[in-house]
Structures are given as C-alpha cells and as structure tokens.
Amino acid sequence: MRLSTNTLLAVLPVFVAAHADHHLHARAQQHARQVPAAAPPPPVASAAGSSSQANVVGTTSSQVAASQSSSPAVAGTSTLPAGSSAASVAGTTSSVSSAAVPSLTVQLQATNPTAVPLASIIPGQVSAATHPLPSTAVAGSVPTFLSNAPPLPTITGLLAANYPPPDRPAPTDSPEVQQWIKEVQDTGVVIPQFSPTNGIGGCANNTAAASDASRCWWTCGGCTRSTDITECPTAMDWGLTYDDGPAFYTPNLLEYLDQEQLKATFFVVGSRVFYNWNMLQSQYMGQHQIAVHTWSHFPLTSLTNEQIIAELGWSRKIIKDVLGVTPNMMRPPYGDIDDRVRAISLAMGLTPVMWTRISPLATFDTDDFNIANGQTSVQQVIQNWENIIGNATTRNSGFIVLEHDLFEQSVEVATGYILPDALGHKNPPFKIQPVIHCLNKDMTDAYIETNNNKTNPPAFQAAVSAGIVTVTGTAAGAKSTGKSAAVTSKSTAGSLWSLAGLALGGLMTLP
Ligand SMILES: [Zn+2]
C-alpha cells in the first residue's frame, strides 16, 4: 500500500511534533557517540582498494588533523551544538556545523546497489516514494510462529476517543491510568523517591541529580543495573533495534530486512502505532520483535511516577489492542532511565533494554536520528557505525546498536550502507537478530501472553530476585497493603514537562 497524500497530510503534524520533541531534547541531552576502539592509524593517502575500516580515503585537511590527534575523543565524536551539556560528561566534543559536511573517510565492505547516494541523504531532501508493506497482515490470522499466541485482532481502525492525544504525556486521571497505578501499587514495589529531573537542561541543569550515584541515572554517567539489557552475551551477536516508529519509511526498511532475511526488535511509540497500526501488524507477523518505547517519547526521568505509568501503560495497551500480545521489554526514550523509572517499568512487567556503552565516548549510537535535522551528516553516521563495529569486533560479548526508523534518512543509511556493510563483514560474520534471540531466548519469551516464564522469568520477579527492586510485603508480586507514597508524589519539574508537552502538542494543530 502506497501512502496516499491525504494519509501523509493527516499524520504529518505528528511527525512535526516528534521532530520538535527530538530537536528540543537533542539540545538538552548529551549523547557522546563513538570513538574508534584504538587510536586511528596515520592517514594513508593511497589507501583506495584496502578494506581496512580505519583507512582514510579522500581525507580532508581537518580530518587529517583529527586522525593525527593523540586524542581519540576528536575523531568520531558527534556533531553537537555549542553549549551542549555533552562536554561536561564526555569531556571533549568537537562541534562541527552542518555546513562543514565531511567526506566519507571509511571504506565499506559492501553497499546496497540500489542505495540512495550519500549526497542525497540530507536534511530536507525530496521525499522518495514509500514502499508498500511487504505483506499485509490478515485480521484473525494466527501467528503460527508463536506458540499460544492469540489470533491477530480484527481492526478496521482505531478510535481516537479510546486513546490519549498523541505526542504528549497522557493525562493520569483516566480510569485506565488509575487502574495501572493501582496495579503498580499492588506489586508492593518500593519506588525511590527521587524528584523528576528537569529534562530541558540535561546534566548541566541537573547537577545534583547527575552527581547522585544512588539514582543510577544512565543519562548522566551511563549507570546501569544488572536487570538492564545492554548487550548480547555472545561475541559478534548484534541485537538489531530500531526506535521511534512505525512511520512512513518503516515499510522500506521491512522490505530490505525481508530481502536479507533479517529480523529486528522494534521499540515503537504508542502515538505512532495509533496512525500506523497496520504496519505494526506486518512487523509482528513478519516475526520481528515488538517492544515498548512509551506513548509520547518524553524523557521519563522528567515525569512524575503517574506520568511514567501512563507513558508505559498506554504504549503497552495500544500494542496489545493491535497485536493481541503484550511486550515485556521497553527502551526509555533517549536512554533516559534511573532507578525510579526502572522500578516502575519492572513493576509493569517491562525489562529495560539499552544500547551498548563502553565508555562516555563510545556508546553504540549511530546518531542516525540527527541527519534529518541537520545536526549530523550521513557521512558522520557511517563513521560512527564503522567505529561501532571496530569496537564490537574487539569485545568478548555481543552488542546492541541504537538506530531509528522514524525518518527517511535513517532508513536510507540503514538499508543502503549500514546493513549491507555488516552483511559484507564475513570473517567473522555478525549474527544479526532481534534482542530476544541474541539473549538465547525464543520469540514466545518476548510477550506476556506467550511467555511460559521458564527461560524468561517475569521482569518484576527477576528484578526482585536480583535485588534491583524491593517490595513491601513478603514476596515478589505479593499483594501488599503498603502503598508506596512515591506513586502519588507530585513535582514542579514534572509539571514543567507537562507544559512543554502541551507546547509541543500545540505544534500538531499547525496546518
Ligand atoms: Zn526514541
């Protein structure tokens, strides 16, 4: 099915708002991307023909300077605006304006013969045709690849009246959210009483929270807990993930994945599932893993407990409405998670999945999202990717990379360059698979309704056993009369984000 003009116009405001959301947050958040595993070799002017990842072909003077620098922090760092708080975390950030687009300095193992030329993958590019969904899911069909899965729900359309407004934190006074709050309380989980962060300012404007190690705040320092999934256990295994869809160009990505017989994990935004529920059904029936990426894509640590419950609950619900199954994994937008968000997620049966992070300067984030808004170039994204696989191939365990299917540019760099390059990497090859499979688990383990809870114990029970969360009461999952006061705590910071949400939501009313 080709998206009609009317369809595009109908959903465009959502993507405008989403873009604004990310742009706003990109200025506030810090994401040090990638540096090479080791100091890069000296530039080789006549390196054409070599397949070494670090070869420099067609090097510009600025890149020679970068590659000759003794500081590995210079090469491969992402483009960030001046004043970004990244420097306070990463220590070094080379700020490159979008006008100074670097030439491609790496030689890929392979590219897609039908790839969109790099020169055309730019902000504001002329939109290419969206492809038809590779397969249209049939209502009522049974996902035979998933034991005990219910038939695909029969949907002809979703009613807006049944869901909160898109792309802003959902109200917390609805019967649904009130029920989910009660369910969280009934687990007996003790939610740490941290005040919500001021998400607008990132680490620089949250100095107290950023220095509070007890929060275990990933955003400012990369702290993780043992229940967070941050990598695949086996070397050369790549947990393939795409965030922020389903969106216009998701079918183009699905077509390529089908062609190469690859399966991925999609962390989907509930607001976008509302518009593109048929895509979600195709993804699911295509045996990709579906997981939660919140309702409106706000940074979760900036929200109140109730808002976090609403963000996760509505995304979980719309996926269940469309697929008949409930995911048991989530990825926090921007990786923004701390122990308060963890406790709530786990109490809602959702295991956090991050992307691999070796150091502040080596996160496995391609930064593909920022091509569309001009904050980085496709060449830089490919350089980031090459740095990622340079690091990945030296690890004793596998890895998870952050990529997106929201914008055309991200899909084009994935299908034209990143995935072909990975597939061309033969000795040894990468094993590319959904996160659930790289954990040596079955796809049935990825959904509440199909998980037999043997190889993949429920998230909350596992977290209690691991000592990551505590409960009031006698045992994990026990009904408890003790109510966590934090579930009903309010904060000024959370309200600020609510206002920001309203402002962003206002964009959706633009023509
Ligand atoms: Zn995201």
SSE layout and pairing:
Blueprint: H1 5-28, H2 61-68, H3 86-90, H4 175-186, H5 207-210, E1 237-243, H6 250-259, E2 265-268, H7 270-275, H8 277-285, E3 289-292, H9 305-323, E4 329-330, H10 339-347, E5 351-352, E6 357-359, E7 362-363, H11 378-392, E8 399-401, H12 408-423, E9 431-433, H13 435-438, H14 459-465, H15 492-507
Parallel strand pairs: 1-2, 1-8, 1-9, 2-3, 4-5
Antiparallel strand pairs: 6-7
The structure holds zinc ion (ZN).
Question: From N to C, what is the helix and strand string?
Answer: HHHHHEHEHHEHEHEEEHEHEHHH
How large is the share of residues in beta strands? 5-15%
* CA-based gyration radius: 22 Å
Small molecules bound in the structure, each named once:
zinc ion
Question: Helix tally?
Answer: 15
User: Biggest sheet, open or closed, and with what strands and sense?
Assistant: 5 strands, parallel
Low-pLDDT runs of 5+ residues are: 1-99, 474-486, 488-511
Mean pLDDT rating: 78
Helical content stands at 25-40%
Structural shape:
globular
Strand segment tally: 9
Gap from first CA to last CA: 25 Å
Class computed from helices, strands and strand pairing? mainly alpha
Keywords: Carbohydrate metabolism, Cell membrane, Cell wall, Cell wall biogenesis/degradation, Chitin degradation, Cobalt, Glycoprotein, GPI-anchor, Hydrolase, Lipoprotein, Membrane, Metal-binding, Polysaccharide degradation, Secreted, Signal
Membrane topology: Lipid-anchor; GPI-anchor
GO molecular function: chitin deacetylase activity; metal ion binding
Signal peptide: 1-18
